[in-house]
Amino acid sequence: MRKxxxxxxxxxxxxxxxxxxLLIEITEELLDMDLKGVEVIVxxxxxxxxxxTDAAENYPISVGAxxxxxxxxxxxxxEISAPMLKSMNVDxxxxxxxxxxxxxxxxNEQLKQKVYQVLENDVVPIxxxxxxxxxxxxxxxxxxxxxQLEESVFNLEDFxxxxxxxxxxxxxxxxxxxxxxPAQAEEMHVYIRSLIEKKYNKDISEGTTIxxxxxxxxxxxxxxxxxxxxxxxLIGGASLNAGDFLEIINQRIKKx
Length: 256
Ligand code: PGA
Known about the structure:
The protein is an alpha/beta fold. It is 44% helix and 14% strand. The chain has one domain: Aldolase class I (TIM Barrel).
C-alpha cells in the first residue's frame, strides 16, 4: 500500500527559537496521537535540520530538506549536498518546488541531477510538479506536468522511481489562498498516475504516493483527502502553525 503523508514545508520562515517552539508543539502532540500509518514530515530551513533530526530520534516525525545542490561536493559556496543530508539522517528532500523553478531558474535538467543526487545518497525525493495559471488557462496544464515528469524523473529505472514521492502543486494555488477544486486535484492526480502506468506499469503507478499542495488548510483538507488518488499533502503556510498543521494531519488520519 502506498504511503499516506503530510509534509510541512516551512520555506524561509521562523527564527531559531520560533522553529524550536513550533517543533516542540508539533512533536509533543504527535506523541499522543494514533497516526494510523500516516507519516508526518517536517521540512525546516536547512540551518534547523539538526534540530528536527534530533527530535526525530524521540518523536514520530521524519525530516526533509527543502532543496539540495545538483553536485555532490566541492567549491560551491552556500550550497548543501545530498551526502551531507544523508550524514545528518535527513530522510527526504523536496526537489523542484515551484519557487525554486521560478525564482532560481531551476531547469528540468538540473532537477533531474538533483533527483539523481538524493537517490544516490538514500534520501527520498519529494518531486514537485505544477502548472502556472496562464498555462492552465491556455489548457496546457496536462502537457506541462507531463514535460516536467518526462524531463526530470521518467528517466529513472523502476527500482529508483518506486522510491519517489510526487507532489502536484498548481502554482496558482501556492500561498494564494486559492485551492484547486477537488475535481481539479483529482483530475490531475489521476492523470499523473496514468502517465506513470504508461511509462512504468500499473503496480508502480498504484504504489506511487502523490501529494497535493497549494493552500491546503484545516478547512479544505478533509475534502482533498477524500479523493482516492490524493495520498496526502505538502503544506506550506498552514504548517507554520502547530494547531493548523496538526488538524490537517488529523483530517488525513480520519481517512485511514
Ligand atoms: P501553501 O504552500 O500551502 O502555502 O500554498 C504549499 C507549498 O508551497 O508547498
